[in-house]
Design goal:
74% of the residues lie in helices and 0% in strands. The protein has one domain (3-65). It contains four helices and no strands. The longest helix has 13 residues, at 3-15. Helix 3 (40-52) packs antiparallel against helix 4. The chain has helices at 3-15, 19-31, 40-52, 56-65. It starts with a helix and ends with a helix. By secondary structure, it is an all-alpha fold.
Length: 66
């Protein structure tokens, strides 16, 4: 599965309520897995969503972004 398809699958799962998928999206954007370089704006968006729903991983990403 290529990066784009993986991202689309994760977005689909996150849209259905998967907090794990949302944190994987945030981490992927933070580390630059879904493009040529990290996308901190999108990482923050997804990490904020996941953190609101109790994701400790997402909270760590947000802390690293601040």
């Amino acid at each position: 599965m290529d990066k784009k398809q993986k991202l689309l699958d994760l977005i689909d799962r996150a849209g259905k309520g998967s907090i794990e998928a949302a944190e994987q999206i945030a981490e992927g954007y933070f580390k630059g897995h879904f493009g040529d370089k990290p996308n901190m704006e999108k990482a923050k968006k997804w990490a904020s969503y996941a953190a609101k729903h109790g994701s400790e991983t997402a909270e760590k990403i947000l802390a690293a972004l601040d």
